[in-house]
Design brief:
Strands 1-2-7-4-3 form a 5-stranded mixed beta sheet. A two-stranded antiparallel ribbon has the order 5-6. It has a two-stranded antiparallel sheet with strand order 8-11. It is α+β, with helices and mostly antiparallel strands and 472 residues long. Strand 9 and strand 10 form a beta hairpin. Helices cover 47% and strands 10% of the residues. The chain starts with 24 loop residues before the first helix and ends in a 5-residue tail after the last strand. It binds manganese protoporphyrin IX. Manganese protoporphyrin IX (MNH) binds next to helix 12 and helix 18. It comes from Schizopora paradoxa.
């Protein structure tokens, strides 16, 4: 027996659009999850229907690459205005996805990412220096981590320096990228007709896109005029043929992928660093434990650079990062669609259990997987699912999690290609700042407020930062 998928009452023309807060859609989805539970559907303007799944059991079934493929939902369609058929926003059937995937997978492997450590140290040092000199003033970690992740991905992938630590204002390119992603997110829930009007900052949208593409084209032109020995991702994309098709990536495809690295590689990682800082400051006992580990494994902070080998020994640090991404997956949702009409089973997901409802999803039906919500599913994570407890990710427990339970990097063929890169960068930065500094909120009563562009970040979180006493 097939159960209908519940839907909140719709209003004429708008459907359920008015239920989604355009500034922080996540909060609307949390509220709807409380009201409707494991699954429901929404109808948007123009009659487009979206199914939303919240429970781990349903998410696990939708994470099966033999039954579901990535869908390009309303938001990613907007991001395609800039990134086109680059890796992240391509339809799986677009040939450029396959070509770029095959060329870039080895470049983003854990092994090859180790060769990028030098670049990561370079930019991390710039952050440390700024915080050392500036820490008595107010530090905006979300901004400084954005400088860091942006500068790092640009340096490591295309040997380009944005030098954003050297200006008080965010460099124009970063500002444009942030605006573009914020706009893409809110445009997704807005009727097409309004998108062409010069409202809500639409005016600069097209111009920003043009500028950013031009900046990427300029970087490529520059590289062609001044070839280097450096085997960064740009030279790889310029110089390698796809083993399957024998084709080079076109200049246009390279531009889209460079912009893709910048889009996909900065917000997610900087958000993760900011959330990790938040959770550690809110949980002093966890911070103390991390500090003890860092002091033991990294030794005294005497100006020697932290090595990758040392980072590899910091297990609690990894648990902190995993737990941060469980509670605050900076990419809060992802979209899939069934390859054929198919049935998914609610409750505990067992088709034989008569208590579980069966739902039909049609071929091509857009489904939003709410990672933020499913990674707090009490069935998997227990009664304390909402608390920050890195210990739950240690001692073999992480490896024993049910399939698809922890998936802040997505899943399957379209999972994050930048995971080893983000991981190594975050290990270095978190180890560096918590070893070196005593960090506190400027407002000791600060509680998390979320802001959302394409991804989520803590809003209005400000820090004071002091060097730890030398004896530590
Ligand atoms: Mn990343 C895909 C999360 C860092 C480049 N990334 C994804 C997806 C998630 C994700 C989730 C899957 C989206 C979907 O199914 O629609 N990514 C993250 C997180 C971090 C992150 C949480 C950091 C923390 N990502 C990075 C970095 C880079 C990067 C760093 C690049 C340098 N990500 C990508 C690309 C894809 C992707 C490219 C698309 C891969 C594909 O579809 O083939």
């Amino acid at each position: 027996e097939i159960s209908p998928i519940p839907q909140p009452p719709a209003v004429p023309f708008l459907g359920n659009t008015n239920l989604i807060d355009t500034h922080v859609p996540l909060h609307s989805f949390e509220l709807l999850a409380q009201q409707y539970g494991e699954i429901y559907k929404l109808v948007f303007i123009g009659g487009r229907t979206t199914v939303i799944v919240n429970s781990h059991a349903l998410v696990r079934q939708c994470s099966d690459d033999t039954r579901f493929v990535k869908t390009i939902g309303a938001t990613l369609k907007q991001v395609r205005n800039l990134a086109g058929d680059g890796l992240f926003t391509a339809y799986g059937v677009e040939p450029n996805w396959g070509i770029a995937h095959r060329l870039l997978m080895p470049a983003f492997s854990t092994l090859n990412v180790r060769t990028m450590y030098e670049g990561m140290l370079d930019i991390c040092d710039q952050l440390l220096l700024k915080w050392e000199r500036f820490g008595s003033e107010t530090i905006d970690p979300a901004e400084d981590f954005t400088r860091l992740t942006f500068d790092t991905i640009a340096l490591c992938s295309m040997s380009h320096r944005f030098n954003s630590f050297y200006s008080m204002e965010m460099p124009k390119f970063i500002q444009q990228m942030t605006d573009f992603l914020t706009q893409s997110n809110s445009r997704a829930y807005r009727p097409g007709i309004l998108q062409s009007l010069p409202l809500f900052g639409n005016g600069s949208y097209e111009e920003d896109i043009k500028d950013m593409k031009e900046a990427a084209r300029e970087i490529i032109r520059n590289r062609r005029e001044h070839p280097t020995e450096k085997r960064d991702l740009l030279s790889l994309m310029l110089g390698s043929k796809d083993p399957v098709t024998g084709e080079f990536l076109s200049e246009d495809a390279i531009i889209k992928n460079l912009l893709t690295f910048l889009i996909a590689g900065h917000e997610t990682t900087s958000g993760m660093l900011t959330f990790a800082t938040y959770f550690l400051l809110k949980n002093p006992d966890k911070l103390r434990k991390l500090r003890e580990e860092l002091d033991e494994k990294l030794g005294p902070d005497d100006g020697e650079e932290i090595s990758l080998e040392q980072l590899g020994e910091c297990e609690y640090l990894v648990a902190v990062m995993r737990e941060t991404l469980r509670l605050s997956p900076t990419a809060t949702a992802r979209g899939v669609e069934p390859i054929e009409d198919t049935i998914i089973v609610g409750g505990d997901g067992d088709p034989a259990n008569p208590a579980n409802k069966h739902f039909m999803v049609k071929k091509g039906q857009g489904i939003i997987i709410q990672e933020y919500i499913q990674m707090r599913d009490h069935r998997i994570w227990g009664e304390d699912a909402d608390s920050f407890r890195p210990e739950r990710m240690m001692g073999g427990a992480f490896e024993k999690l049910p399939p698809a339970a922890w998936q802040p990097f997505g899943f399957g063929a379209r999972a994050c290609i930048g995971r080893p890169f983000a991981w190594q960068e975050a290990q270095l930065v978190l180890a560096s700042i918590f070893r070196r500094f005593d960090i506190s909120f400027t407002d000791p009563s600060y509680n998390l407020v979320i802001k959302q562009a394409l991804t989520i970040k803590p809003k209005d979180m400000h820090l004071h930062v002091k060097l730890r006493p030398a004896s530590a």
